[in-house]
Amino acid sequence: MKIVSINAGLPREVEWRGKIVRTSIFKEPMAGPVRVERLNVEGDRQSDLTVHGGVDKAVYAYPAEHYAFWRQELPSMDLPWGAFGENFTTEGLLESTIHIGDTLRIGSAEFVVTQPRMPCFKLAIRFDRETWDPLRPTGDGKGFPAKRPNRLLLGSGSGGRSHGWRHYHVDRSVRRCDYRR
Length: 181
Description:
This protein is mainly β. The chain has one domain (2-177): PK beta-barrel domain-like (M1 Pyruvate Kinase, Domain 3, Beta Barrel), CATH 2.40.33. It contains three helices and 14 strands. The protein has helices at 67-73, 121-126, 170-177; strands spanning 2-8, 12-16, 19-23, 28-29, 34-36, 59-63, 88-91, 103-106, 109-112, 115-116, 142-144, 146-148, 150-152, 158-162. Strands 4-1-7-6-11-10 form a six-stranded mixed β-sheet. The protein starts with a strand and ends with a helix. Mean pLDDT is 76; it is low at 145-156 and 172-181.
């Protein structure tokens, strides 16, 4: 597993469906070393702490491998790393291979996988769509707290992994929580 992009963004207000919505879905790749704090990535803030961020969801990771699917589904959209609101665009860290409770060492920082990220309407805002649900692939990424905050460099590779709930993959928990069923 390695980080291909570290992304951050600040809250902004946008108009959607005739209302003003505060969102932090718009992330941009960061350059150089980036500090990961206990509650977020340096330069990043969450807009609604009732559903994003906090101790259990300080960092959101999304696999670079999913971008190929989205580039086919959304051919007219520019999809730079961070387009799905993730702080870490990763390679080799798929929802089907990572478990709830896994501890990941990336560079000198440590993270614990706590839960999947369930997609919300702010992805529809980001991609200027009425809804996001019909386009959702099997993988939604995952959220995790910074167990041992530190600086990360772009391209940082995994320094190891210890397994949590070995038989409870992140993609399985997404299926169990799927509100559309």
